[in-house]
Structures are given as C-alpha cells and as structure tokens.
Amino acid sequence: MKTAIKIETKVDELLAVLDKDIRHIQENLSRLNELRSLVIKRDNAALGRLLETIQNNADSLAANEAKRNSIRRELSEILDCPVEKLTLSELETVVTEDRKIRITETKTRLKSLTEELKKEYLGTVMLLSECARFNNLLLKSIFGFGKTGTATYNSSGVAKRQADAALVNVKF
After folding, report:
1. Which of 127, 75, 128, 30 is nearest to 88 (CA)?
2. FRET partner for 12 with CA separation of 20 to 30 A, picked from 55, 102, 126, 131?
3. Would the pTM of this model clear 0.70, i.e. be above it?
4. pLDDT by residue (tens digit) across 110-155?
5. Which residues pair with 97 in a beta bridge?
C-alpha cells in the first residue's frame, strides 16, 4: 500500500513538472511568432530584448528538466523498471483512474504542442534562411561579388545576365 501511495505522489509531482513543460512550449510558440514578426519589422532592439528573455529563462528550463529526470529515476526505482522504458503510457497502467485520465490529457496536450512547435520552428527556419539568402544576393549584386555570369530572372521568367558594372564603386 505504501508503494502505491509513493507512486501516486511521484506521478502528481511529474504531472506538475509536465504542466511547466507545457507552459514552456506555449511560451516558445509565442516567442517564435514574435521572432518572425521582429525579423520582418527589422526591430533589432526588440530582438535583443527577446534574446535576453530567452537566455534568462534557460536556467528555469534546465531546472525543470533536472526535476523531471529526478522524478523519473525515482519512479523507475519504485516500479523496478529501467528509466529508458518508463513512459507516460507505462505509468498509465499502474495508477488510479483519475490520474490515468490526467496523464492521458497531459500526454495528448504535449504531443499536440510539440507538433505545433515543430511546424512553427520549421516556418521560422525557412524565413531566416530566405532572409539570409536574400541578403547574400543583395550584397553580391551591390558590391559586384562573383561576376561569373550570375543569371537573374524577371517576372516573366526570362533570364538576364548580370552586367559587369557594380552599383557601388568600392575603393580601399
């Protein structure tokens, strides 16, 4: 009976930690949206503040992860199960019905949020890579780097070779 109480207590602690993880993922989704917006607006000051916020929250995330791992180790010892095999699905089989429902809800929420985070992260990566590509092309065209016959295309798709003259005359 004492083992069942220990398991229930540890599961409650784990669910609390996972709730913090859910909040963290939601904050990251918000930050990705803000990051894309600030990049498009080219607001360097706000980007700097966003970076500071992210750096300040890194310690909180690390502490929450350490706590989650600690609880998992304790639960694996109680259940005599290797830590690697201890999952939320495994915990659902050994807890009471009300905790099983909470675990299922938490698992579902985590799964949907991580899918959304992956999608938003990919969108952000694509935006930033396009910005880098565009900036690179812009610098090459302005300063005349790589005059090896770069082809550009107009709106109708017709190729046009770059002229030998740069837009800017750079003297060192």
Report:
1. 75
2. 55
3. yes
4. 999 999 999 999 999 999 999 999 999 888 878 766 555 556 777 7
5. none
Contact 73, 85 (CB under 8 A): no
Q: Is residue 165 part of a domain?
A: no
Considering the domain boundaries, does residue 129 fall inside one?
yes
Radius of gyration of the chain (CA): 26
Q: E strand or H helix at 164, and its extent?
A: none
> What total of structural domains would you count in the chain?
1
CATH number, position 61: 1.20.58
Q: Dihedral sign, CA of 65, 71, 73, 76?
A: negative
Tell which wins on pLDDT, 158 or 91.
91
Distance CA 53, CA 25 (A): 15
pLDDT in tens, 64-80: 999 999 999 999 999 88
Quickly state the pLDDT bin for 2 (edges 50, 70, 90). confident
Print the domain residue range for 113: 2-153
In sequence order, what are the residues at sequence separation of 6 or more whose Cβ sits closer than 8 angstroms to the Cβ of residue 11?
75, 91, 95, 99, 103
64 Cβ neighbours under 8 A, 6+ residues apart: 17, 20, 21, 24
